């Protein structure tokens, strides 16, 4: 299993500006390239901040011209090309930013990752998601027989049915499927093979051996 990397989704050849780039030139670039922000770089190509549409609007309401250095939000929060998009998304959420300049080992800007780029994860074809779950999750990672578990995917919703050999595998299968890029939700209809055999033989079925097992005794009250 491999999460898509920042390099897989980022916009390459990012549009950048210098500290001295004027307000009107930044506005022109945003309009020409249909983007919402630009990284501000120094003479070595390292990001020192980001100027967004919101920064331009704030300055316009205040009046007067300005340069990128006066407009930018600094310091720039950056990402690396080899990062997983999950890590990048968490950085965006934690720092409350909508985009991340992507820098190489020398610290130079090589691309930009935006929240709109992350949406591409959820546009993965259902067949690709199904294939990854069958081959990577069930076969390579959990060493389960593909014939034991049926995987259906419809608009990112994964439905699992069939059996697994042990009850403790049930939550593991679901958790790993949820971590696959493009999965919106998982409908777990799996049962434990041992529990099914015990039920067929008329024996007791242990707790946690399948979604059909109900707890005994009175229903617990709300806390």
Concise summary:
The chain has two domains: 6-121, CBS-domain (Roll), CATH 3.10.580.10; 124-200, Histidine-containing Protein, Chain: A. It is 35% helix and 22% strand.
Q: Radius of gyration over alpha carbons?
A: 25 Å
CATH topology of the largest domain: CBS-domain
Integer average pLDDT? 85
- The residue fraction in helices comes out at 25-40%
The shape is elongated
Strands, total number: 9
At the first level of CATH, the class of the largest domain is Alpha Beta
The proportion of residues in beta strands is: 15-25%
Poorly predicted spans: 207-223
Please give the count of helices.
Answer: 9
Quick one: biggest sheet? Answer: 3 strands, antiparallel
Alpha carbon gap, first and last residue: 39 Å
Structure write-up:
The protein is of the alpha/beta class and 223 residues long. It has two domains: 116 residues, Roll (CBS-domain), CATH 3.10.580; 77 residues, 2-Layer Sandwich (Histidine-containing Protein, Chain: A). The protein is 35% helix and 22% strand. It is built from nine helices and nine strands. The strands form three sheets. It has a three-stranded antiparallel beta sheet with strand order 1-6-5. β5 and β6 form a beta hairpin.
């Amino acid at each position: 299993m491999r999460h898509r990397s920042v390099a897989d989704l980022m916009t390459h050849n990012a549009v950048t500006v210098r500290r001295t780039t004027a307000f009107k030139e930044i506005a022109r670039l945003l309009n020409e390239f249909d983007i919402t922000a630009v990284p501000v770089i120094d003479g070595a190509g390292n990001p020192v901040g980001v100027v967004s549409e919101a920064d331009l609007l704030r300055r316009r309401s205040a009046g007067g011209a300005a340069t990128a250095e006066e407009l930018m939000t600094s310091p720039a929060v950056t990402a690396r090309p080899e990062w997983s998009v999950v890590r990048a998304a968490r950085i965006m959420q934690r720092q409350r930013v909508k985009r991340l300049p992507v820098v190489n080992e020398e610290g130079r800007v090589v691309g930009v990752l935006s929240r709109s780029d992350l949406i591409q994860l959820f546009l993965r074809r259902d067949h690709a998601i199904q294939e990854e779950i069958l081959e990577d999750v069930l076969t390579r990672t959990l060493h389960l027989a593909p014939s034991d578990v049926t995987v259906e995917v419809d608009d990112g919703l994964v439905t699992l049915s069939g059996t697994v050999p042990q009850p403790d595998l049930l939550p593991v299968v679901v958790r790993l499927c949820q971590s696959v890029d493009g999965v919106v939700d998982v409908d777990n209809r799996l049962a434990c093979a041992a529990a099914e055999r015990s039920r067929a033989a008329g024996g007791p079925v242990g707790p946690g051996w399948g979604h059909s097992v109900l707890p005994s005794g009175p229903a617990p009250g709300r806390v």
